[in-house]
Amino acid sequence: MTAPYACQPADSRGRLYDEDLSSFRSPWQRDRDRIIHSSAFRRLKHKTQVFVEQEGDAYRGDYFRTRLTHTIEVAQVARTVAGALGLNTDLAEAVALAHDLGHPPFGHTGEDALAALMQPFGGFDHNAQALRIVTRLERHYAGFDGLNLTWETLEGIAKHNGPVAPPYPYALEQVNAAWDLELSTHASAEAQVAAVADDIAYNHHDLHDGLRAGLFTEDDLAQLPIIGPAFAQVDHRHPGLDPDRRRHEALRRVFGVMVEDVIAVANDRLARLNPASVDDIRAAQGAVISFSPPLHQGLREIKTFLFKRMYRAPSVVVERRLVTAMLNELFPLFLARPEALPGHWQTDAAAAPMQERARIVLDYVAGMTDRYAMAEWERLCNSAAPTG
Ligand SMILES: Nc1nc2c(ncn2[C@H]2C[C@H](O)[C@@H](COP(=O)(O)OP(=O)(O)OP(=O)(O)O)O2)c(=O)[nH]1
């Protein structure tokens, strides 16, 4: 039994292309399954979350998060928080599983490089790209392009960062023209949960991966809010714990603090708002799901630390330069030589005027995994006689 403000499967606004309902899966369970079976989802396995591998450290590199394991952790948090708030867990899970489908190779570094390259051609960002993938680029179904997801799942992907004001990014403009996603309102509480679950997941796992990669130590974290007290509590309760267990115990406390904070804030806001339906959540003044101001401030300090010591650590900056240079060569090459593209990409790009061709090349390059992008760069840009 879900809360009155939860999304109800029977009230789903359905799919753009009408389909018979399943007799044994709800619309959002079906969305979840379609997302998991998409090619973009499988490719998350080989897309970077944060560059933490040191050179020659391929074995230890297997240990760190990829976009796929990050996504699975986001989905887990989303289900837990949605369940605790009486929301529809399947919808929260579907939005969580789709939220990073648009990430290009090499994580945020790849995104920065491709956004600069696409600047004259309408731009690029991973959230808009996720929408483009699930509405156009997956081409496996007989009756439509994309996954034909429900309105509620598309809404959740489109409003990952809250209500959207015009001018809309490229993919949002197209999708919204075909089907009004009511971009000026908040998303459902389920989608808001998926968005906050993203922050909870990466704040937790980036600390974990950063420590394991040796980018910083437990001592470096001692002065930080939330995490410093978590280590102190573990030391008090379990003196002399071995380093691995000590770290795990402290980080699971940090995880718990974030999850409990979001649930407490939501319960408080929901009690005051008393929404009778999901539309009351959409029309509310602010988001119902977010961190409390003190926790938000604490997480900002942690993020500042992580930026300095992890996302822009010297070893990471070296890696950023290398992969940016690769994309800076690959993208213009495909733009100038569409015959280097495979299959339908080649025919589509060759026939298209420049603006459209750039979007096709972008779709192709952004869909690459890290290792495929490196192999393509090696094949086309790093040999004396590139083969088309
Ligand atoms: N924001 C940002 N995150 C980075 C950067 N380099 C690595 N990361 C990592 C930190 C987190 O694990 C993850 C955050 O990216 P996400 O796409 O999940 O969230 P973000 O809030 O940046 O965007 P989103 O909420 O998806 O619109 O990427 C960077 O240059 N900027």
From TrEMBL:
UniProt feature coiled coil, ranges: none
GO biological process: dGTP catabolic process
Keywords, ordered alphabetically: Hydrolase
Classification via SUPFAM superfamilies: HD-domain/PDEase-like
Listed InterPro entries: dGTPase, dGTPase-like, dNTPase_2, HD/PDEase_dom, HD_domain, PHydrolase_assoc_dom
Name recorded for this polypeptide: Deoxyguanosinetriphosphate triphosphohydrolase-like protein
GO MF annotations, alphabetized: dGTPase activity
